[in-house]
Protein: Glycosyl transferase
Amino acid sequence: MTDPRTTVVVITHNRRPELLRTLDRLAELPEHPEVFVTDNGSTDGTSAAVARHHPHVRLLRPGRNLGAVGRNLAVRRVRTPYVAFCDDDSWWAPGALSGAADLLDRHAALGAVTARIVVEPDGTEDPIVEELRNSPVPGPRWLPGPALGSFLAAATVLRTDAFRRAGGFNPRLWLGGEEELLAADLAADGWWLTYAEDLTIHHHPSVARDSRRRRRDGIRNTLWFTWLRRPARPALRRTLHLARTVPRDTASLRAFAEAGAALPWVLRERRVLPPEVEGRLRLLEDSQRRSTARRYTG
Structure:
C-alpha cells in the first residue's frame, strides 16, 4: 500500500530514545512515506543514532535549535503534494496518512486535516480531541468534518504549497502555540481546516520537556498573534483576558515583557484578518474560554 503523496517531517532536540521509537513506528507504516528529521542542535548523539538506525531518513542538521522553523527547513525540500508533521514523541497510525491525502485530493479548498490524538501508553483520547470534534467554527457543507480555527502541528497533514505560500511557521514565535498565526494566514488565503475523526495519531508525551519555558513562549506567542492579526477591540479584550487569567508567576511576567518589547516589530508586520476569518476566531475564542483542554497559555 505504498502511498507517495505525503512526506513526514519531524523536529527533535535531545530526545534520542523517543525519536528512535517514533522512526521505528513510521518505518512500519504501510504508506512507506519519505521522512525528514530536523535535528535542532541535539547534543545527545541524536543525529548519529538516526544515521545508524534509520539511514533512509533525510536528516537535516542546522547546528542550532530552530524550534518550529526546523519544519520550514524540511518543507523546502519536500517534493510531495502533502506534508505530515509529527513530533519526536508521536507517530501516525497505519492508513492515517493515506486517509488524509484522500480528503485533500477530494476537496480542492481543504488546506489541512487534523487527526484524532490518542495518548499512550494508556490509549486514552487527548482531552483536546473533544474540542476539535465539537468545534464551533462554521464551515461549508462540503467540508468532510468539523471546521477548525487552528490546528495542532504534531497531528496535522497540510497541503505543501499552501504551507509555503502562507510562509510556514514564523521564526519569531519559535515554539509553543506557533500554529495559531499560520492557521489564520491559511484561512485568510482561502483554505479550510478540518478535523478527521477516523484518522489517528499516537502521542507518548516525553518527560524531557521544559514546560515552564513552553508556557512562557505560548503566552508570548498568543499575545503576538493577537496583536498581529486581530482588530483593535478584540485584541485588547483578549490581552486583558490573558492578563487576568494566566498564572501570576515569573514565566507569565517574562512572557508579557518579551511580547511588549517586540511592539515595533508587531506594528511593522501587523495585518488584520478578513472579517469572515475574524468572525470564526471570535467563536473559537468563546469556546476555548470554557474548555479544560491543555493550552500553552494556561
Remarks:
- The CA atoms of residues 76 and 164 lie 8 Å apart.
- Residues 294-298 have pLDDT under 50 and may be disordered.
- Residues 211-229 form the longest helix (19 residues).
